[in-house]
Specification:
The structure is a single chain. The chain is of the alpha/beta class and 641 residues long. The chain folds into two domains: 438 residues, Amino acid/polyamine transporter I (Up-down Bundle); 172 residues, no CATH class. Helix content is 57%, strand content 10%. It is built from 23 helices and eight strands. A hairpin with an 8-residue loop joins strand 1 and strand 2. Helix 5 packs antiparallel against helix 6. The chain is elongated and about 95 Å long.
């Protein structure tokens, strides 16, 4: 998923529509940045993927036959080639929404392209977004645990300290989020480059000793393994999938780094390094079946173990950081698309709008991650919980990708199905294999995903019901303006801005103001804030003004779903359109609604209560729209839903 706050100044060259670099220096910087942010998750998979796959291939016991190990390696290599290289690098990186990628960007693009079935597209977007939160919780717990476990190989006396050390690292990681990640991000690329170089070089000696591992590049070994291992082969696929978790990040971070830097980094650095490392681990297992205990760290000589544990820990922290900041980015997009209530968003950089921190999201993620570490206590146990959320997201991405290829690229439905069907079949196979691990820990991401789906669906449905109910009670704006111009009440100096989600009806705050104060300002503005189905809006389209009468005007501010709305700053643009906006002589009127459950509503009673609870937890509109609190007047009203 997206990792916006981990972007450095290297982002600047990607300012054009599709985020392509304009210069060699810019391209290199973007490629380095993508290695640090995009590939952190998939780059740390060798810590546990091969071990879990080989153990699964043997029904949870020790070593397997040489042919079996080669079959597992072949499955991993071809999963990297087909799922990551063909599906994401070749096909989906072309399906961008104004240069942006990710499941919600794809949802908005697909939704725009269809006339019927838009509700299904939104549901798919909700499912994929919800499943990502499961990934965001499991990745830090699994990655850091697997890195710290390497310390047990130095001496068994460290065994009891693995979980406490993991918890300490995670506490530090989550506690520094509020400071922003710009400085740390500058080290992401170089550190991950060192990581990929080291894991590739360390694999060369074992491969030279056992060159037969190169036979695994022949897909016949993968096919043979699946045909001869029956149910065990199917179970093994669930563990093999651990090697491709993180593939979604290639697509999600498209807008930050651009297509070519991400593709180049994968094809020339990341994929060769991962392939070599998996081959090296396999060669080690062939030489000594006991090394399956921890084939990654046992590739290194004893003197290199402690430095490698340290490097692996740093690499897993980077992988975790990318997922955490991705959760912030996804939450902001979900808020803008009306899938979640408003949460506090703090900008940690003046230069880059993508660098944000969300205290509530950070706190919830931290609690969930620590609980997982304390519940499962080892990376092997936690590996069972991994995969379901990621495979679910991949299935949904493939489905929405079909809609985009068919309706946006204008391919025939048969050609679009022909392209996507093999990927969808593979994703569904991986999902089915991972679902076998539900009772071993797979229920965790499913439970988290289900909870988020309920929250997102409830918020979207409740907001729509509330809007429809409010609309019935409100007075047509044009009729009110005509009445007030014909028989105006007492006027006071200054400008009043009334925020409303329905520009055709008189805002509740305006009606209550007239009812209680019986006065009207010299200038009155009905302000609506629109979220576009595109990631960002061109500044020329940001503000739209319409004069209703001498004293009334209607203003619409438009923001992309990846932008944070700043109302005062945007209204300053309106000066070019003739509005002499002065923040010190302007009062913003907002209506604060107190919700009560109605006797008969469009949702079950429990959902009514959940929607009301979410509404109360929602961040203040004043803070969310960055309006100075000293210029805001809130008018309370009670609504039943």
């Amino acid at each position: 998923m997206s990792s916006e706050s981990a972007i450095t100044a290297a982002e600047t060259p990607a300012a054009n529509g599709h985020g392509e670099a304009h210069s060699t220096a810019g391209f290199k910087a973007l490629m380095l940045g993508s290695i640090g942010v995009v590939y952190g998750d998939i780059g740390t998979s060798p810590l546990y993927a091969l071990r879990e796959a080989v153990v699964a291939a043997n029904g949870g016991e020790g070593g397997v036959t040489a042919q079996g190990v080669l079959g597992v390696l072949s499955l991993i290599l071809w999963a990297l080639i087909v799922v990551v290289t063909l599906k994401y690098v070749v096909v989906l990186l072309r399906a961008d929404n104004n240069g942006e990628g990710g499941t919600l960007a794809l949802m908005a693009l697909a939704q725009r392209a269809v006339t019927a079935g838009a509700g299904t597209i939104v549901l798919l977007g909700i499912i994929s977004g919800a499943l990502f939160y499961g990934d965001a919780v499991i990745t830090p717990a699994l990655s850091v645990l697997s890195a710290v476990e390497g310390i047990k190989l130095v001496t068994a006396t460290f065994d009891p300290y693995v979980v406490p050390i993991t918890v300490i690292i995670l506490v530090v990681l989550f506690s520094v989020q509020s400071r922003g990640t710009a400085r740390v991000a500058a080290f992401f690329g170089p550190v991950m480059c060192v990581w990929f170089a080291v894991i590739a070089i360390a694999a060369v000696p074992p491969i030279l000793r056992h060159p037969e591992v190169l036979y695994a590049l022949n897909p016949i070994h993968a096919v043979w393994f699946m045909l001869h291992h029956g149910v065990i082969g199917f179970v093994t696929l669930g563990a093999v999938f651990l090697a491709v978790t993180g593939a979604e990040a290639l697509y999600a971070d498209l807008g930050h780094f651009g297509k070519r830097p991400i593709q180049t980094a994968w094809l020339f650095i990341v994929l060769p390094s991962l392939a070599l490392n998996y081959m090296g681990q396999t060669a080690n297992v062939l030489a000594d079946p006991k090394s399956i205990e921890n084939p990654f760290f046992l590739m290194f000589p004893d003197w290199a173990l402690i430095p490698m544990v340290a490097l692996a820990t740093v690499a897993t922290v980077i992988a975790s950081q990318a997922v955490i900041t991705g959760a912030y980015s996804l939450t902001r997009q979900a808020i803008q698309l009306g899938l979640l209530p408003r949460f506090e968003i703090r900008h940690t950089s003046e230069a880059h709008s993508g660098q944000i921190y969300m205290p509530r999201v950070n706190r919830l993620l931290f609690i969930a991650v620590i609980l997982l570490v304390l519940m499962f206590r080892s990376s092997s146990a936690l590996a069972s919980a991994y995969g379901i959320s990621v495979t679910g997201t991949m299935v949904v991405t493939a489905m929405m990708g079909f809609v985009v290829i068919w309706r946006v690229w204008r391919w025939s439905p048969i050609a679009a199905a022909g392209l996507i069907a093999p990927f969808l079949f593979l994703d569904l196979t991986f999902l089915a294999a991972n679902l076998l691990k539900v009772w071993e820990g797979g229920w965790v991401p499913l439970a988290l995903g289900a909870a988020m789906i309920v929250v997102m669906y409830t918020w979207r449905r409740g907001s729509r019901l509330l809007f429809e109910k409010s609309r019935k009670l409100e007075f047509p704006l044009d009729d009110l303006v005509k009445m007030l111009e014909k028989r105006p009440p007492q006027r006071v100096s200054g400008t009043a801005v009334f925020l409303t989600s329905d520009p055709h009806s008189a805002p509740t705050a305006l009606m209550h103001s007239l009812k209680h104060y019986k006065v009207l300002h010299e200038k009155n503005v009905i302000l609506t804030i629109d979220t576009a189905p595109t990631p960002r809006i061109d500044p020329s389209e940001r503000v739209r003004m319409e004069q209703l009468s001498e004293t009334f005007s209607k203003v619409t501010l438009k923001f992309g779903f990846m932008e944070s709305p700043n109302v005062p700053k945007t209204l300053a643009i309106a000066r070019k359109l003739g509005w002499q906006f002065d923040i010190m002589s302007t009062s913003f009127f907002l209506s604060r609604r107190a919700l009560k459950p109605a006797a008969h509503s469009g949702m079950p009673r429990w959902q009514d209560h959940l929607f009301i609870a979410l509404s109360r937890a929602s961040n203040d509109a004043t803070d969310y729209f960055q309006i100075p609190t000293g210029r805001v007047v809130e008018v309370g009203t009670q609504v039943t839903i």
